């Protein structure tokens, strides 16, 4: 049984910052501030609905959990306690800013059964952090991540945003390598969505912020997926949740309701190209039948048959079939130009 979260959205309350990309109310889709009775109601309901409570965390998401007024943070944590333990939920998961992590805060979190802390790193370039008015530095992320790990009782998660103002391919690759060096258990990757009512929105409208090419961001994120897989880092989110609120408020950026599938398809395209490359020049291949594990057929074909079309444009007719087991791509049949097999 996989991991799941019971999400309690804690909106912008108490966050003294105004990051250039943030319109927290738009993202959470709610302005209501949850209190102890809301936490209890949500948890009671979830206890009856969740299949495997032992693999489920109560997740306080949406804002910067450790930056809210202390009394309020303790109220929410306190309300969750009776739902954690044997035959109950596994623990609590929170998201917060790296500059609101200290031993004092971590002691409170540990004593209140917090099991996972996700830090909004967003970028590991100080230029990008500053340009997007994040209010913390790369050093803050590194210090907070190391302090969290030193406790030995928290899973570390890091969140990053791709395509922020003043970012480019180099800053994104730098961000990835610094994130990976901190060995998080999980990462969330959010390609930027430019929302109305944000500073980023103004910069975008004025023409000052020119986002990267959509395809470039897909390529970068596909690379991160591959690297994370190699390092055993779990990419628990890639792309914002498909939501009507976001779709209504969006001015631009890198939103796609199935962004992860786009990236997985892109990775498959690369794998297929590598496999075909073993047979010489791709342009010398007329047609090929490729077999992939059955459950990966749709990724191999790509969104709206993007991979089939891509190779067609290169003059190669590809048919994808499925096989059981094995993670390997196999070439079942290949016809070179001139009829050679
Ligand atoms: S710290 Fe988080 S909640 Fe506060 S403005 Fe920035 S993104 Fe929004």
List keywords for this structure.
three-stranded mixed sheet; TIM Barrel; 341 residues; binds iron/sulfur cluster; alpha/beta; hypothetical protein PF0899 fold
Average of per-residue pLDDT values: 92
Class from secondary-structure proportions: alpha/beta
| Rg computed from alpha carbons, rounded to a whole number of angstroms | 22 Å
Count of alpha/pi helices: 13
Q: Overall 3D geometry?
A: globular
Pfam families: Radical_SAM (PF04055), Radical_SAM_C (PF16199)
Protein name: Radical SAM protein
Domain Radical SAM core: 1-227
Organism: Ruminococcus bicirculans
Structure description:
Its cofactor is [4Fe-4S] cluster. The protein is α/β, with parallel strands linked by helices and 341 residues long. It has two domains: 4-257, TIM Barrel (Alpha-Beta Barrel); 268-336, 2-Layer Sandwich (hypothetical protein PF0899 fold), CATH 3.30.2320. Helices cover 40% and strands 22% of the residues. The protein has helices spanning 24-28, 36-49, 70-80, 103-111, 126-131, 138-151, 169-181, 199-206, 214-231, 244-249, 259-277, 297-301, 306-313; strands at 4-9, 56-61, 91-96, 114-122, 155-162, 186-191, 193-195, 234-238, 250-253, 285-293, 317-323, 330-336. The strands form three sheets. Strands 1-2-3-4-5-6-8 form a seven-stranded parallel beta sheet, with helices on one face. A three-stranded mixed beta sheet has the order 11-10-12. Strand 3 (91-96), helix 4 (103-111) and strand 4 (114-122) form a beta-alpha-beta unit. Bound molecules: iron/sulfur cluster. The site of iron/sulfur cluster has 11 residues, from loops.
């Amino acid at each position: 049984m996989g991991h799941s979260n019971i999400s309690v959205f804690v909106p912008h309350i108490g966050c003294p910052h105004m990051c250039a990309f943030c319109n927290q109310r738009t993202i959470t889709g709610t302005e209501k501030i949850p209190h102890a009775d809301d936490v209890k109601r949500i948890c009671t309901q979830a206890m009856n609905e969740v299949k495997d409570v032992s693999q489920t965390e109560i997740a306080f998401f949406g804002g910067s959990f450790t930056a809210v007024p202390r009394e309020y943070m303790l109220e929410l944590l306190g309300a969750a306690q009776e739902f954690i333990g044997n035959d109950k939920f596994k623990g609590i998961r929170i998201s917060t800013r790296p500059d609101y992590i200290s031993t004092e805060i971590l002691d409170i979190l540990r004593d209140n059964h917090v099991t996972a802390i996700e830090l909004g790193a967003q970028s590991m370039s100080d230029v990008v952090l500053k340009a997007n008015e994040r209010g913390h530095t790369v050093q803050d992320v590194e210090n907070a991540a190391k302090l969290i790990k030193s406790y030995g009782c928290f899973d570390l998660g890091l969140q990053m945003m791709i395509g922020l103002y003043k970012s480019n391919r180099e800053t994104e690759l730098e961000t990835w390598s610094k994130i990976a060096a901190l060995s998080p258990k999980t990462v969330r990757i959010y390609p930027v969505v430019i929302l109305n009512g944000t500073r980023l929105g103004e910069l975008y409208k004025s023409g000052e912020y020119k986002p990267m090419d959509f395809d470039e961001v897909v390529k970068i994120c596909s690379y991160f997926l591959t690297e994370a897989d190699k390092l055993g880092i779990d990419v628990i989110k890639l792309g914002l949740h498909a939501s009507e609120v976001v779709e209504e408020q969006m001015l631009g950026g890198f939103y796609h309701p199935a962004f992860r599938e786009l990236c997985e398809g892109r990775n498959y395209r690369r794998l297929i190209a590598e496999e075909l490359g073993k047979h010489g020049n791709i342009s010398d291949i007329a047609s090929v039948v490729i077999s992939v594990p059955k459950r990966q057929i749709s990724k191999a074909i790509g969104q709206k048959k993007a991979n089939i079309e891509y190779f067609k444009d290169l003059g190669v007719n590809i048919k994808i079939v499925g096989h059981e087991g094995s993670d390997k791509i196999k070439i079942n049949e290949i016809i070179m130009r001139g009829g050679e097999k």
